[in-house]
Structures are given as structure tokens and as C-alpha cells.
Amino acid sequence: MGRGRRNLPKNNQELKRLKAVTLLKAKVPMKLTCQISGVSDRTCYRIKSDLKHRRTWLRKVGSKGNSKLTKSHKLKIYNAIKANPFISTQDMVRKLELPVTHMTVNNYLKGAGFVRRKPHRTLDLTPKHIENRYLWAYNMRSFRFWGEVIFTDETSVWLNDNGHVGWFHKK
To answer: What secondary structure does DSSP assign to 105-167, as a single string?
Structure first.
């Protein structure tokens, strides 16, 4: 990128940097420049260095281009995790024949709200949950047909998961 500035700052951060540049060119002290412009000390020092070495003070433009993952790729990834949350990103790229690296899949999953962790071994029960369970069991102590009762819960049962690390949604 060449020197100079754009016609209008695109966002609030660019406006803050423009204010810092103006103050630094007016030889306002560094601490005061940082306070008035609202940018961090490190950014002020970087801008000052950029001006000294005749480099552009504008923020470098990131790639932010089009994602190589299409909607169909993202759906395949989601379905793969739904079927087996313990699958690695390398295996996903290989099995789904994705045209990206495993790090791209990793970044997509993190951006979509997934985290890589071990599954919970215990339930997160509040004291109110514990009290309700105790009261239910106490009230059911005289029930006579326990042989015909099947208990279920809203949870997944994984046989032989061995505590492996898997992809789980944050929520």
C-alpha cells in the first residue's frame, strides 16, 4: 500500500488512528495523543514509527476474502461432527475430500461456536436439582412396579468413548 490517506475513514478505529496521526504531526506529547485519540499506547508508538519511516499508518488489509468452504462443505462438516464428535479435523478433510487444510476446518468450527474438549463425566446439578431428585425418590419409595419401569434422560450415551477429546458446541 502506498502512502497517503483515504477520503473517509471506513470505521471508528480508522478515525481514531487518523486523529492520532494528526496529533502526532502537530507534535502533541505521546501520552496525551493516546488519551485524546482513544487508541492504545502500542498503536500510538507504531503510528509514530510508521510516520518516522515514511510508511503508511493505515491498517493493513486482511484477506477477509471469500471462504473456500462452501455451504455444502460446511453442512458436510456439521453432519460429520453430529455423527462422530470425536473425529479430528485431519480425518474430516481426508474423508470428506475438502479442498482446504485441516486448520481452515478448525478455524471454521471455532468460529461456529464449537470447542474441542473432553465430554463431561458428571452432571452439572444445582442444589435445587438435587433436592428435587431426592424428593421424587422419597415419594416413590412405596412404588410396587419397579420391574416395569425404564428410565431415560435427554442425553447421548456413547459406548467406549474412553474420554477422547471431541468437538462440542459451547452452549
So the answer is: HHHHHHHTTEEEEPPPSS----HHHHHHHHHHHHHTTT-S-GGG-----SS---TT-TT--EE
Bridge partners for 115 per DSSP? 168
The distance in angstroms from the start CA to the end CA of the chain is 42
Model pTM above 0.85:
no
Each residue's pLDDT tens digit, 42-83: 888 888 888 888 877 776 666 556 678 889 999 999 999 999
Query: Which sequence spans correspond to the domains of the chain?
Result: 1-60, 69-142+164-171
C-beta separation of 81 from 110 below 8 A: no
Q: Is 91 left (phi over 0), alpha (psi -120 to 50) or beta?
A: alpha
Residues 150, 156, 160: CA angle, nearest 5 degrees: 100
CA atoms within 13 A on the CB side of 101: 3
